[in-house]
Design goal:
Elements: H1 2-10, H2 12-23, H3 26-30, H4 34-51, H5 56-59, H6 62-69, H7 75-80, H8 85-102, H9 105-117, H10 121-136, H11 141-160, H12 163-168, E1 184-188, E2 194-198, H13 210-231, H14 239-251, H15 261-288, H16 292-295, H17 303-319, H18 325-344, H19 352-356, H20 368-381, E3 390-391, E4 399-400, H21 408-414, H22 417-436, H23 438-445, H24 454-468, H25 474-491, H26 496-506, H27 518-525, H28 531-553, H29 557-561
Antiparallel strand pairs: 1-2, 3-4
Helix pairs in contact: 2-4, 4-6, 4-22, 6-22, 8-14, 8-20, 9-10, 9-17, 10-11, 10-13, 10-15, 11-13, 11-17, 11-27, 13-15, 13-27, 14-22, 14-25, 14-26, 15-28, 18-20, 22-25, 23-25, 24-26, 24-28, 25-26, 26-28
Length: about 575
């Protein structure tokens, strides 16, 4: 019997793929309508995404097969959804992030900030959280965590060394970032890729005290949590943000570019700051206690260890050498990209997109994706060294031009193409729901929610999404929830962004389980943490996150997105009654 169960478990993916479509068949057979056909496709894809019986990107291709065969959409219409402007923005943003990583600019920024912050326990936590959150705003949360965790453990090793170790000047085995580690572990990402993670040393040099173990756990969690928190601050910081933008454009094509880089930053950046500070205080209280005087390092007992830890950071910073021409060029292009994003169509003044590239309505014809691709192409063109001729070391006697800042080999190695397809699958689902009438049907069924206060509705929905995202990819979570939330908002005459924005942020609140996000998995694989430690810290942080998001959507976001009225661009045939009462409850 045991062998039978083991065999079933071994073949579980095959069984799920074969049986689920058959089990769900009664729905389209008993209810032969386009709404039921579309619901069948969505439920099937949702279950495949939750169980990961197929790779997430492969499941995302199902609409190309199912929608034309069910008579919901033409194949040509479905395929267009797989490379929209939001996908281009995602690709362009990642090309810039890959260039920053390729030239180690992110590591230089991290070490420089840590030198400025200091190594008192509370300030060290704050320093690592600030650096990790800032880097996660621009490059992937996974890459940021993979870089910051070894640095954190190296500094902790020096802080936890005995005075005798420090006096003898013994080497630190943890801080080996310049050389490949002989032992690696592999952690599986949300997007299905395998990421090698440097394993922690198997034998600690000295027995750590309980206080040192707790500080190590606190430092590890602060890195992975701040990576997830930092990603919400910018539109390109994490994929769910781009899912929202794409869904808004797909479901409400008449919207006046309401979700762009500047408007998102105005809403999400203050939210990120508040949540980061509260996370910092919560981790201090949970792992270091209420002795803030000790946490901030008042006293001279730890002076020797602090000097040793600072020396570690200084040594690693010196190993980077002076800034190269490539790093300076990437810095200039990165700053130019951010400035162009902010000033293209900010809303509160005429941006360069409105002035130079306006359409008949005065709206910018240039998008954030256009800007990202423009800067990316420059990176493919600009040389990585000051232009000149040098000898080719592989072919003596031949002259060689310097390589560009970015080449396709590097891009092909680091670009997560599967996420591009996953985004496209989500947009195809949203369009199919609209075309089939499923969105309108759901909206009619959700009208009783009109009697629930909007802030309570937002809080409950955010809590639901935060729970769901603990065991499912955050991209799949937002892809499934946002079209339903848009229909619900239209049905109860709420501004669609009033429910879609907070639930998108809530999809990044995956703090409780190692499998919830790649940053959590990386930190957990490094050692020193138990599942209970992460669950204990993450549970309250999830609650704090939902409360902060609820505060944000009911305060400063009202003026940014005009949430006090039901917008004309969200009007549909099923929401004519909303025009009679266009105001939504003020915060």
């Amino acid at each position: 019997m045991a062998t039978c169960w083991q065999g079933l478990w071994a073949y579980r993916s095959y069984l799920i793929v074969l049986l689920l479509p058959i089990v769900l068949l009664p729905l389209p057979i008993l209810v032969p309508s386009k709404e039921a056909y579309c619901a069948y496709a969505i439920i099937l894809m949702a279950l495949f995404w939750c169980t990961e019986a197929l790779p997430l990107a492969v499941t995302a291709f199902f609409p190309i097969i199912l929608f034309p065969m069910m008579g919901i959409m033409d194949a040509s219409e479905v395929c267009i959804e797989y490379l929209k402007d939001t996908n281009i923005l995602f690709i362009g943003g990642l090309l810039v992030a890959i260039t920053v990583e390729h030239w180690n600019l992110h590591k230089r920024i991290a070490l420089r900030v840590l030198l400025l912050i200091g190594v008192q326990p509370a300030l060290l936590l704050l320093g690592f959280m600030m650096v990790t959150a800032f880097l996660s705003m621009w490059i992937s949360n996974t890459a940021t965590t993979a870089m910051m965790v070894p640095i954190a453990h190296a500094v902790l090793q020096q802080l936890h060394d005995t005075p005798k170790d420090i006096e003898e000047g013994s080497d630190n085995p943890t801080f080996e970032l310049q050389e490949p580690s002989p032992k690696k572990e592999v952690t599986k990402l949300d997007n299905g890729q395998a990421l090698p993670v440097a394993a922690a040393p198997s034998k600690p040099r000295v027995q750590k005290t309980q206080e040192q173990i707790r500080f190590t756990q606190c430092m590890s969690l602060c890195v992975c949590y701040s990576a997830s928190i930092g990603g919400i601050a910018t539109l390109t910081g994490t994929t769910p943000n781009l899912v929202l933008q794409g869904q808004v454009y797909s479901i409400f094509p008449q919207n006046p570019n309401v979700v762009n880089f500047a408007s998102w930053f105005g809403f999400a950046f203050p939210t990120m700051i508040v949540l980061l500070i509260l996370a910092w205080l919560w981790l201090q209280i949970l792992f270091l206690g209420f002795n803030f005087r000790k946490n901030f390092g008042f006293g001279e007992q730890e002076h020797q260890r602090k000097d040793a830890a600072i020396q570690v950071i200084q040594t690693e910073h010196r190993l980077l050498g002076p800034m190269s021409f490539a790093e300076k060029a990437v810095t200039v292009l990165f700053i130019a990209l951010v400035l162009l994003w902010f000033t293209r169509e900010p809303g509160f003044f005429e941006g360069w997109g409105n002035l130079a590239f306006a359409n008949a309505k005065g709206e910018s014809m240039v998008s954030d994706g256009t800007v990202a691709i423009f800067i990316s192409i420059i990176m493919f063109i600009m040389p990585s060294k000051i232009p000149g001729l040098s000898q080719d070391p592989e072919k003596p006697g031949r002259l060689k031009a310097p390589p560009p800042l970015l080449n396709w080999k590097t891009v092909n190695k680091k670009m997560p193409w599967n996420i591009v397809f996953l985004l496209g699958g989500g947009f195809a689902l949203a369009k199919g729901s609209e075309k089939s009438g499923l969105s309108a049907w759901l909206g009619d069924k959700l009208t009783p929610l009109q009697n629930v206060p909007p802030p309570a509705t937002v809080f409950i929905l955010c809590l639901l999404v935060a729970i769901f995202t603990e065991c499912t990819s955050n991209v799949a979570t937002t892809t499934l929830f946002l079209p339903i939330l848009a229909s619900m908002a239209q049905a109860i005459c709420l501004h669609p962004l009033y429910v879609m924005l907070p639930c998108t942020l809530a999809a990044s609140l995956a703090f409780m389980l190692p499998v919830a996000t790649p940053p959590n998995a990386i930190v957990f694989s490094f050692g020193g943490l138990k599942v209970l430690d992460m669950a204990r810290a993450g549970f309250l942080l999830n609650i704090i996150g939902v409360l902060v998001i609820t505060l944000a959507i009911n305060s400063w976001s009202f003026s940014i997105f005009s949430l006090h009225t039901f917008p004309s661009w969200a009007h549909s045939n099923t929401t004519t009654h909303c025009l009679l009462n266009t105001t939504t409850p003020s915060p």
